[in-house]
């Protein structure tokens, strides 16, 4: 087990497009994914892409909090993923990122997506996701293409320290509802 160093905003690894994994046996993916899982859980994250731990592999791991039980965390793996939006419907919601600690931004994402990729054994994985599940997959997929959520802000003013966002933005959003 190893907790990996997470690349922070400003590190060039976060802005590079990753390389597809052509031979699943060529790299010690099992160890990488295990270490990434430990790192994500240790950092209290719900997703982690390879570039965030200084790797140029086209893979990410994520949790689907919608289906998790309180005492059990389920980590999913997607290698060489593809995503497509199912409709043109979008939703604005707040996001954070382990590579941009303590900050939050209001990001516009597709409400429903379909995704595909392979697991550690090369078995095809595909499915559909909506809500937070879809948001997490899109966020991590962006990392594989060198895109940070800060470039997808729904409102350029809606980015800042999470504690300030909680006090001023989210409070105002709740009062409007």
Your description of this structure?
- The protein is α+β, with helices and mostly antiparallel strands.
- It has a single domain (12-176), classed as Peptide deformylase (Peptide Deformylase), CATH 3.90.45.10.
- The chain is built from 3 helices and 8 strands.
- The strands form 2 sheets. The protein has a 5-stranded antiparallel β-sheet with strand order 1-2-3-6-7, sandwiched between helices. Strands 4-5-8 form a 3-stranded antiparallel β-sheet.
- It is globular and about 50 Å long.
Low-pLDDT sequence parts: none
Can you write the helix and strand succession as a string?
Answer: HEEEEEEEHEH
CATH class: Alpha Beta
Strand content: 25-35%
What's the helical proportion of residues? 10-25%
Rg estimate, integer Å? 16 Å
- Tell how many strands the DSSP assignment holds: 8
Helix count, DSSP H or I runs of 4 or more residues: 3
Rounded mean pLDDT is 92
Structural class: alpha+beta
CATH architecture: Alpha-Beta Complex
Shape: globular
Labels describing this entry:
177 residues; alpha+beta; Peptide Deformylase; 5-stranded antiparallel β-sheet; 3-stranded antiparallel β-sheet
What's the SSE blueprint?
Elements: H1 29-42, E1 47-49, E2 59-63, E3 75-85, E4 90-97, E5 100-110, E6 112-118, E7 124-130, H2 131-144, E8 159-161, H3 162-176
